Structure formats: structure tokens, C-alpha cells
Predict the 3D structure of the following.
Amino acid sequence: MTNGTRDNRLGTEPVVPLLFKLALPSILSMFIQSLYNVVDSIFVARLSEKALAALSLAFPIQMVLIAVAVGTGVGTSSLISRLLGAGKESRARHAATHVLVLALVYGIIAAAAGIFFPAQLIGVFTDDPVLIDYGARYIGIILMGSTAMFVPMIANNILRGEGNTFIPMITMLIGSVLNIILDPLLIFGYGFFPELGIEGAAVATVFSRIVSGIFIVIMLFSGKNQVRVSFKGFRPDLSIVEQIYQVGFPAMVMQILASVMVGGINIILAGYSATAIAAMGIYFRLQSFVFMPVFGLNQGYMPIIGYNFGYNNASRMKQTMKAGFLVGFAFTAAGFLIFQLFAPGLIRMFGSGRELLEIGTRALRTISLAFPVIGPSIVGATTFQAVGKGFPSLMLSFLRQIIILLPLAYIFGRTGGLNMIWYAFPIAEAIAAVFMVLWLKSTLKGVFNIMEGDV
């Protein structure tokens, strides 16, 4: 190996136990986060079906914020793991400091949008004045408090890059559990808490993120981590920002494409009813229970792949990939069975209206046909990112969501009605999965040839 014999668990411990050791904290924390998303929607649904629909319309805007945080975080985790694998700890520390500065900048920009343009943002998706009112009241608060989201989401990836998934788990647990507790108190005004309605859901979210953000910042500056963050002598280095976004920008755009897709679907569904929009919102929240464990798996998978890529250990990368793809498939195949068997019960958690139950059940059962291939596809996208190649993931996401899914949904809706729209999802996923397999095989063949020639 060209990088010597440094002892590090990312490069030495048995792959499968290490993968689960790193991934389980993230899987647990993301499960709790998914629970918060569902509980949040259940409480809002008790206000009215239109309030739930408004939450669905606000979702694509929130996804843009998440896109910026996820893209920056993925780029950070990938870069730090590769730098540590190559023995460049000082540069890894510089990268960590840079992303915290970026988190503050993004928070200021989003807050300005929340102050001046909340109604205009919701108005992109609907002209219903009730939906615009509900949505603007909610998203304005979320945007103004977005720094509280950017800091913990991005900072967690600094620690994940060095293989520490425990502290990020605690950070996410603090935010999610506190949010679940505060939601009903602030929405309905129990006890001495004010009754804030839909704004209460937003306030609960922002406050819980502030608390989790304070926790992760304290942990980062404690000096007990391999990557020690300090602003002493900080000077902007554009080369670090460039390296972060070589992987992070494609990941960010991928998430933004998801926002465009959700927004586009909402616009198509708006031609049917607010109930159809609400059903779509329910699906997106419930799907997080299926996909979040795979994303949690990736938090352990990416640093192992990235470290051993930097360490030129092709054999260990292949072992990790095999385990990652199998576990990803198992998670989403289980989700497929749950959605097929229990769809009506899942919808009833949000409302008992006949139309919502009928539309929602059909949507869940049809869209979930794609679940068995989505798990391996998510792991495949992460593999590209872990070796510093974010472009293929970006192009595959663009192909699936924009080139295939949205046009199919529009055509199916015009020719077959609402029930046909849902079939656009599994068709798009299946086609994109074929392209992903072919592209990943080609990319890794070149990567492994170079690595094995460097031994």
C-alpha cells in the first residue's frame, strides 16, 4: 500500500461489524427523525386537511434547505474521510472550520427569504388563498430559523467523516425528541403554552434545532475529536471549498432536483384536489421510515469506502460495497412489504376521510413497487460520492426525477387520471437503476485498476 501501515479502525476492523457499528447510531437517529416528521404531520392534520395539504406544499421549499445542508455535509464527510485516510489531518481541520462558516452564511440568506417572500414561495404551487395563508405562516418561521438547521446537519458530517457516528446520533435524537414533545404543546396550546396552530409546528422545529445545534457545537469545540475545530487564525481557502463541492455540489443539486420533482408533482396534483396533495405529503413522510435507515447505513458506509479509497485498499472497498448493497436491499424490501400489507392503516393515522383513504392507499401501494431497487440505488449513489465522483449521482438523479418521472406523471395523469400518476414512480426508479448499475460498474473498474496498479 502506498500509504504505509497506519492503524485505524476504518482500515483494519472487520468490515461487516464495523459497518453496523458505525451505521446503527445513524439508523436509530434517522428513524427518530422520521418519527418526528410523521408525528408533526399527524398533529397538523388535526387542524384540517387543508393545513396538512399546506404542509405538503411547503415541503419542497424545506427540501431546498435540506439540499444545501446535505450537499455541504456529504462533501465534508467525503473530503474529511479521504484526507484522514491520506494522513492530512491539518487540512481536515481547515475543512471543518470552513463548513461551519458556510452554515452561517446559508442561514442568513434563507432568513431573508423567510422575512420577505413566504407567501410568494407557496404561491408557486397553488392559487388557493387558504393554502397560501397556512403555508406562508409555516414556511416563514422555518426559513427565518434555518441557521438552526444548517449548523447541526453540516457539523454532524464533520464527525461522520472521521468515523464518529455516535455524537451525530445524540444530536439528532435531541432535536427530534424535543420536537415531538413540543409539537402538540405549541400547536394546540396545552398547559401554559400558547395555541399557535400551524405556526406552532414551525416554532417547535426551530427551537428543537437550536438546542441540538448548541450541543453539536459544544462537542466540536471540546478538543476531544480527531478533527479539532478552531477559528484561531482562520483564513478563507477557496481550494477547500472547491474540494467540498466537487462531491457536495452534485449531491446538493440532487436534493434540489428532488424538491423540483415534489413541487412539480404537487402542481400536477393540484389539478385534482387538495386531498390528492395531502395524500402525496403523507407518502413522502411515511417513505422516510423506509429510506432513512438506508441513509443511516450510508453514514457508516461512506467513511469506510472513502478512507480505504484514500488508503488504496481495493479489497476492503469491495467487501464494504457487497455488505452495503445487501443491507440496503433488505431495508427497502421490508418497506415494500409493509406498504403493501398495511397501507390503509398507515393512511388512517392522518385522517379518516373516505377520499383520503382511497387515494392514499392506492398511492402507497403503487409507488412502493419500486422500493426493492431503491435501497441498492441509494447505496450506489453514495459509492460514487465516497470516491469523490459526484457527477454520476447527479446525472442519474436528474434522469430519474426530471427526465422520466415528471413527464410520465403528467402524461399518465392526462391519459389515465389520478390513479395512473402513481405508476410513474416505480417506472422511473427501475429505468434509473439499470443506468446506475452500468455506470457504477464502469467507474469502479477504472478506480480498482488504478488502485491495484499502485500497490
